[in-house]
């Protein structure tokens, strides 16, 4: 089952900004398969990014960590994706 964090990540990165799992993985220096399990799931199973991965995602894509974790506040730290 998708967690709220997985849902918010998928919406921000895939839907709102039109990125692919490959593009996200390349920017995070991680595998497409790992990103795919975070955002889309694999065989119905979702994995949550580690704390370090979440910090890197927020930094790389300018995402407000409070929004990502709780759904509250602005989506972006500076109102836009880097």
Question: What are the salient characteristics of this protein?
Answer:
434 Repressor (Amino-terminal Domain), mainly alpha, 82 residues
What does this structure look like?
This protein has helices spanning 4-16, 21-28, 32-39, 51-61, 65-70. 56% of the residues lie in helices and 0% in strands. The chain is mostly helical and 82 residues long. It has a single domain, classed as 434 Repressor (Amino-terminal Domain). The chain has five helices and no strands.
Helix content: 55-70%
Helix and strand element order:
HHHHH
User: What is the assigned CATH homologous superfamily?
Assistant: lambda repressor-like DNA-binding domains
Mean pLDDT: 89
- Assign the CATH architecture: Orthogonal Bundle
Number of helices: 5
Query: How many distinct domains?
Result: 1
Oligomeric form: single chain
The biggest beta sheet is recorded as: none
Report the sheet-strand fraction: under 5%
Report the structural category: mainly alpha
| Broad shape | globular
Distance between the termini: 29 Å
Unreliable spans are: none
User: What's the CATH class, please?
Assistant: Mainly Alpha
CA-atom Rg in angstroms: 12 Å
Task: Find the CATH topology.
Answer: 434 Repressor (Amino-terminal Domain)
Say how many strands there are.
Answer: 0
Task: Provide a quick synopsis of the model.
The protein is 56% helix and 0% strand. With 82 residues, it is an all-alpha fold.
């Amino acid at each position: 089952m998708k967690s709220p964090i997985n849902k918010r990540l998928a919406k921000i990165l895939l839907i709102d900004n039109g990125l692919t799992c490959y593009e996200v993985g390349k920017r995070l220096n991680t595998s497409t398969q790992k990103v795919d399990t975070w955002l889309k799931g694999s065989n119905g199973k979702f994995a949550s990014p580690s704390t370090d991965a979440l910090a890197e995602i927020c930094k790389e894509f300018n995402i407000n960590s409070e929004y990502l974790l709780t759904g509250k506040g602005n989506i972006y730290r500076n109102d836009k994706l880097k």
